[in-house]
Amino acid sequence: MAELLTAAQMRAIERAAIESGAVTGLELMERAGRGVVEAVFEEWPDLAQAPHKAVVLCGPGNNGGDGFVVARLLGEWGWQVEVFLYGSPDKLPPDAKTNYERWGALGEVNQLDPARLFGADGGVKHADLWVDALFGTGLARPLSDEALIRGVTSLNEVSSLGLVKVVAVDIPSGVCADSGRVLECSEKSVETGVHADLSVSFHRAKAGHFLADGSRCSLGLIVKDIGLEGSPRPPDDVVGLVERASLPDLGKAAQTHKYTHGHALVLSGGAGRTGAARLAARGALRIGAGLVTLGVPGSAQMEVASRITALMLKRIDDADGLAGVLEDARVNALCLGPGLGIARAQDLVPAALSAGRAVVLDADALTAFGDDPAALFALLHDKCVLTPHGGEFARLFPDIADKLNATATKGPAYSKVDATRAAAERAGCIVLFKGPDTVIAAPDGRCSISSAQYERAAPWLATAGAGDVLAGFITGLLARGFAPMQAAETAAFCHVECARCFGPGLIAEDLPEALPAVLRDLGVP
Predict the structure, then answer these.
(1) Do residues 92 and 65 touch, judged by C-beta distance below 8 A?
(2) Alpha-carbon gap, residue 256 to 279, rounded angstroms
(3) 278-311, pLDDT tens digit by residue?
(4) For residues 391, 392, 393 and 397, what is the CA-based torsion angle, rounded to 10 degrees?
């Protein structure tokens, strides 16, 4: 797991290091600027081969100070550099002012004036590289000034054509570092955020890099060390619990028998509605559950029996039938929802939850309680995992969803992390809020982001049935004895890796079949 920080947490870490005497603010700014230049040359090696032309846009805070360092270093490299400042140099913070003066010994600082920044035709100045150092992680208000709006809009238009390379210092200007949301100016009803080819962050990535618009506004992300490793930590109350899901620990294979790896039960819908449950069951089996049984109504027995081999089959018509199957204590994890049907879910979910086993609720098992979420919450326990997509989340947690979907006009804006944590606390169990920025939260506030973005982008994962396989992965890990939070995080990580392993053309059936290769690549014994 890699720690992700909010803007306030990053400031606290920097402040603690400075107050300890381990480093000065000026040294951190120098290291940040140098890190940006290094990242640019790593991303685009051709730019390191000979001097080029850069335009650096500096803002009125320390992010602008980083920009002045970048300008000076590129200038010393032999580049032709034009620098534009938004705001008055007299109001720059001390460290930024120092670097403004250092650059001033080499070149001119222009005011961010459209007449100078743009040509007569309104197009941006030609340059090989544009550096966005306007507003960094501390952004608390939208970009509302006409010059800024015009500048960012025009830059984005040219950038989208591939005519310039754009690097953002820390995070694209206009994007909230905590929520990843582009802040909107309510008076103008305009969302303005820089679209960068690369963002260069420092010490740790920020949560906003992986949430909402964060990855849409930046095609790549590099995190540079600026010497804060091993520095004094701030108090625990400002150290984030948000992490980015990474390489999971799936444990060593024991030389035992199938029941020591658990027995998962996946409940299916009726005839013609069994495909989703079969996908989930296949996922549970592939990820290591010792046995997986499909519980089907009588109307679907022949259909399912003709389509499965390694999976087992059990007739379960109603809640009484489920209770009878659960008399076998070896059945230790259940999955309800994929293709289950609303009426069948309303009958079976209470019976499943009353047994106290580990349970994954997905799809119809969530929608069935959309009219009365409190009834579901009253039944849940700490061995449950809920896996809603956006629509299901809104049905179960309408007030939280409304808050998340409200226009973001100031920062830090309400984020998907905030929403998922609130939902988990209300439900009293793990909530996995699906999306390319999947967020997983526990009632105690633990939280992680399983991101299918940047180097892990897998757009082909947006295919029918993929969520059913994810539910199966979680169920299989619960059957193996994983704690609910760990099962959800590990399953989400493997889910993305399976999509990346298979590549374009993926359909849901391919995900479980890609898992063996993924596990081998991850070094799982």
Answers:
(1) yes
(2) 26
(3) 999 999 999 999 999 999 999 999 999 999 999 9
(4) 110
